[in-house]
Structures are given as C-alpha cells and as structure tokens.
Amino acid sequence: MNNLVKLLTILTMSLSVIACTTTPIANADGDTFQDIQTKLLGDMPIPGGAKIIHDKSLILGSGDTWAGRVAITAVQNSTETFTFFREQFQNAGWTLVSSTKTRNSILVFIKKDRTATIEIEEGSIVGGTGVMLTVAPRSTVSPPPTK
Description:
Elements: H1 2-19, H2 33-41, E1 51-60, E2 67-74, H3 78-91, E3 95-100, E4 104-111, E5 114-125, E6 128-137
Antiparallel strand pairs: 1-2, 2-6, 3-4, 4-5, 5-6
C-alpha cells in the first residue's frame, strides 16, 4: 500500500512538471497549433495571438479546399485587424474584390474557385476584435440572359 502511495505521488508530480513546460502544444502526430491551423485553414493567414471560437465555427473539409465559417478573436484592435487581413490575404495570393472600413468592416477576396468574406466587428469583444471568416466556392452558374 505504501508503494502505491509513493507511485501515485511520483506520477502526480511528473504530470505537474509536464503540464508546466513551455513547449508548444502538439497532437499525437507532433503537430503544433500552427501546423494544425495550417492544415485546417490552408493558405489563410490568421493574426498572431488570435483564437478560434470553436462553438461559433463550422469547417467543412481542410487545407486549401475547406468551406464554412470560422469565428476568431483577434488581440489587435479593429484597424490593425483590418490592415492585417487586407495585406496578408493579398500576400497569400488572394485578390481583394471589395472592402468597407466602418464600425463593422467587410473584406471580400477571391482566389481560384473560392470566395472569402471577412467581417470585423469593432468593440465586440473586450480586449480584442471579433472576426467572422466565411469561405465558400465561387458560383459557376451564369445568370439568365435579360430580355
């Protein structure tokens, strides 16, 4: 019984030390959070320090072919967040189609057969900025001819 108590104490202490390490969080394959984000969102840059709000997100697929929406909390203010997405998406090969910078800003990008809409809500989150990234396939249906 005494050996069991010692073993449990050593195990608890070992787990405590492991929990306090500063190495990046990784999954069973050794992928870090950045690796997982890249696999999930593909070529879409996300601001440093941003967090994905899982219960408000829906991702169908992965990598450069995913569709759906991702809710993000950015630590930057709304202007810095707007500038980040405007510049970094273009650097990643996305073409800016439309943008509106207001209290609730919108950026629309296209790349190949996909459309990305980024909504940035000023003052929506204390200490951060709310972002909704929506991605969908571009329509290949032509509108009917006008008479």
